[in-house]
Amino acid sequence: MTSVGIDAIEIWTGKLRLDLPNTFAPVKGDDPEKYTKGLGLHNSSMPDVYEDIVTMGANAAKRLMERKGLSPQDIGRIDVATESAFDNSKPVSTYIAGCLEQVFEGDFHHANKGERKFACVAGTQSIDDAYNWIKAGRNRGRAALVIATDTALYARGDPGEATQGAGAVAMLISEDPSVVELSTEQGYGSADETDFLKPNQQFPSVDGKRSMKVYLARMREALEDYESVAGRTHPDDITYIPFHTPFPGMVRKAALLGYRHMTRDTEIEEELAAELGRQPREEDFDSWDAYEEAIRGYMDGLKDTDRYRDWYARTIEPTLTLSGQLGNWYTGSVHLARTSALKTAAETGKGLTGEKLLVGSYGSGAQAEIHAETVQEGWKEEIEALTIDEQMARRYDLSFDEYEQVHDVHNHDKEIDVEEFTQPVGEFVFAGWGRMNERKYEYVD
Ligand code: COA
């Protein structure tokens, strides 16, 4: 059986940053710890005036192709996942291919291009499409380029404004991958929900509190579905669990729920019973409310046990380091979480080859997907080639007034002229509008 998975990853962050505790919180009259401790966020990445989903995606893809020594003929598909598209017909992948053709020899005329939409889960769905295409033997030895790119901006004053972000993750999906092999087994939790949507509008309508409940409900359903095909999951078998991370505080809730589920009827539940009692079982309660209250009590106790804290520090915390500095990248978020875990392992000298990840993706509207990944031999070299630390350090630190200008520049309903905050070097930039109202791009040396 051919092994298929992620062969390479590149990340491009928006070149500006909004410091949440020091710049955003004071203007909003909030305690900075709401951001750093409550949500788990320190900075949001923001796009400079010449950046958008195309430039960030193309810049990440260019770097990936150069590093892997690829030319356009090596790529048989380009799928872009985004929830920030500006064109309802022409897919973002065509704009990105056009950019790449400005700098690479050859063209992508024989590559299948598309755009995937299902809120934040679309990046994972694009990986799925690439996986299936390769497994079906239709790839003619070529690889797929999957690009998750978003400018995750909320209307000013919306509670979601605290969780914004902008950036792109480009991934090469191929046979015999260097980073991770994907499992065939998958689980889904999917339902028609109205938690977060953009009905023909740029900024989302969000019911934030409800979206958190829906995330947890769908994730739980996906885990049960995954276990129905892959067998029971056990915390000791999984090295990292990268979740979709709109903000680290969300993952704190998902991880606790996941741990309770995974440890039920295991020796861990028995060992914890001395401290907490056994997990409440629905059949032992007269009403759903009484059962829920007992569950809440159990979870409150569980999260303070040494056993859980150790597990969380080992398995979940390493997935959150990038998110806390970059914000929500929507379709890219879960892929940042995976990268963050692998990066932490590389930095701490941890061996990972053959280890297992359980990846929990989520998109509002709503759908969760869970699959497993096995880390491959080349993971460390790939992760060490990333430049995300340098990119983060170089970001321009916005004042609150400058942040508002940047937000307005990227607001499709406003027309304002703002000077760029950083100088583009060796990258694609937005270069104005064409005769059919298309966005145009050029490469700047
Ligand atoms: N110190 C420590 N923690 C603090 C704090 C402080 N001074 N002030 C607040 N907090 C905690 C809160 O207790 C809360 O944590 P909890 O949920 O564990 O109780 C967290 O910080 C957020 O505070 P809250 O008052 O709930 O924030 P909010 O009402 O402004 O909204 C969201 C939070 C997530 C609903 C909002 O940011 C949003 O709508 N985001 C977009 C939607 C989203 O990302 N949904 C997730 C699923 S995809």
From TrEMBL:
GO terms classed as biological process: acetyl-CoA metabolic process; farnesyl diphosphate biosynthetic process, mevalonate pathway
Pfam families per record: HMG_CoA_synt_C, HMG_CoA_synt_N
Every Hydroxymethylglutaryl-coenzyme A synthase C-terminal domain range: 195-408
GO MF: hydroxymethylglutaryl-CoA synthase activity
Membrane-spanning ranges: none
InterPro entries: HMG-CoA_Synthase-like (IPR053544), HMG_CoA_synt_C_dom (IPR013746), HMG_CoA_synth_N (IPR013528), Thiolase-like (IPR016039)
Hydroxymethylglutaryl-coenzyme A synthase N-terminal domain residues: 3-175
Keywords: Acyltransferase, Isoprene biosynthesis, Transferase
UniProt keyword Transferase, yes or no: yes
Entry superkingdom: Archaea
Protein family: Belongs to the thiolase-like superfamily. HMG-CoA synthase family.
Database matches in NCBIfam families: HMG_CoAsyn_Halo (NF041302)
PANTHER family documented for this protein: 3-HYDROXY-3-METHYLGLUTARYL COENZYME A SYNTHASE, HYDROXYMETHYLGLUTARYL-COA SYNTHASE
Name of the featured protein: Hydroxymethylglutaryl-CoA synthase
